[in-house]
Amino acid sequence: MSIPYFMSACLSPLLGGTVDKVGGRAIVCLLSASILVLVHYILGFMPDVNPAVPMVGQGLAYSMFASALWPSVPYTVDENSVGLAYGVITAVQNAGLAGLPLIVSAVYNDSDNLYIPYVEVLFIAFGAVGVLSALGLNILAPELNLKHPPKIGASSNNEGINDSDVTAKYDILNDN
Q: Is pTM, for the whole model, over 0.70?
């Protein structure tokens, strides 16, 4: 059970650094949700697979998602509302952590106490919602895939940050 959390603890800094260097936040969100769908399909419908394998995949997906989602917040809200945005995200996350066991318990009880495959189907459905949400993010805010995305809603008169500006400023700092 600790494999996903151990993986996330080890991989999140590395993946976060990669997202900072390469970009692709919305794509990473899509990939992480897709991995979760695959992981829960394996857990629910492929009993011959060692459960450690999908647990590693789950840890990878968690790490990818956290490394892409949390750093995207400052790009999507007004700079005076970043703390509020993090607070709302944390509240939603904690509400999910509190409420999801109740939903899992209800599914488990309604399926004659069979966790597999019924609860895994629930998790596949949640993963599918994540895939659809990430597809929407890629369609509606493709600029989040840039290395240094502009703030959402920034006008085209260079209010946003672009990669060439950041690179030029980095070069100037390194020359001094």
A: yes
